[in-house]
Amino acid sequence: METHYRIVSGPLCGTKVSVSMTAHGLRIVLSHTESKLIERLQRIQNRWQRQLHQLGFPCLLEVTCADESDA
């Protein structure tokens, strides 16, 4: 089962968020069409994933270009 969201305000406005369950926890994919935002998200991706693990949310966090994920 996969659920899709779109962030509508703030610095991540326009980001598509896809969340699905896996055997090892959540799989969260953040995708956007703007390359500068993608690069920024990729730089903080590991830190966010580590923080989610520390909060008790085992997950895999991915950042992709919206064109790739929508294809």
Number of beta-strand segments: 4
- Count of alpha/pi helices: 2
Beginning-to-end CA distance, first to last residue: 19 Å
Rg from alpha-carbon coordinates = 12 Å
Percent of residues in β-strands: 35-45%
Q: Please tell me the CATH architecture by its name.
A: 2-Layer Sandwich
Number of domains: 1
Helical proportion, percent range: 25-40%
- SSE ordering: EEEHEH
Shape category:
globular
CATH class: Alpha Beta
Mean pLDDT: 90
Strand order of the largest sheet: 1-2-3-4
Low-pLDDT parts are none
| Class computed from helices, strands and strand pairing | alpha+beta
> Looking at CATH, which topology would you report?
Alpha-Beta Plaits
Structure commentary:
The protein is of the alpha+beta class and 71 residues long. It has a single domain, classed as Alpha-Beta Plaits. 35% of the residues lie in helices and 38% in strands. It has two helices and four strands; from the N terminus they run βββαβα. Strands 1-2-3-4 form a four-stranded mixed sheet. Strand 2 (16-22) and strand 3 form a beta hairpin. The longest helix has 20 residues, at 35-54. The protein is globular. The model has no long low-confidence stretch (mean pLDDT 90).
